[in-house]
Amino acid sequence: MERTFVMVKPEGVARGLIGEVLARFERKGLKITRLAMGRVTTEQAEEHYAHLREKPFFGELVEYITSGPVAMAVVEGPDAVRHVRNLVGATNPLEAAPGTIRGDFAVELPYNIVHASDSPESAAAEIERFFGRS
Ligand code: TYD
Question: pTM above 0.70?
Fold first, then answer.
């Protein structure tokens, strides 16, 4: 059993897609074990996207992710990290296959609807970052 962290980003929430996104994980057979609405602080955003700090779009990215309410979830199941990443699709909506969340609902970066952890280690760090220690 594995845990991963998912966030429906501000434009996903604004467009009313929380249910649509989470339903895809449930339909697959994965379980939502934690769920919360919240706001990402600038400090959390800078830490969350630290690997992109040198990129020209870093400022825009932090501004975007902190711009409105988000939905955060812990999703569990066998190989949950990879299953969720497969369901989410490629980072760039232009490369995300139809049938994936980003392929179905997004057209351009940075507006790609959803974040999902890229490894079990990132998942553990992100769950702690956004839900706190449990
Ligand atoms: P990244 O961690 O590379 O991808 P993923 O979200 O698929 O794990 O990038 C984090 C976010 O940064 C990405 O979801 C959208 C944004 N981004 C851009 O706006 N432009 C870019 O060129 C890249 C690579 C990412």
Answer: yes
Q: Is 41 near ligand 1, meaning CB less than 6 Å away?
A: no
Place of tokens 């929430």: 13
Q: What CATH number does the domain containing 92 carry?
A: 3.30.70.141
115 is catalytic: yes
Amino acid at 48: H
Q: Which atom of ligand 1 is nearest to the CA of 118?
A: 8
**pLDDT tens track for 65-85:** 999 999 999 999 999 999 999
57 lines ligand 1 (CB under 6 A): yes
Total domains, the chain: 1
Average pLDDT along the chain = 98
Give me ligand 1 centre to Cα 54, in Å: 13
Domain range for residue 61? Answer: 2-131
Q: Measure Cα distances from 29 to 6, 99, 100, 128 in Å.
A: 15, 17, 16, 24
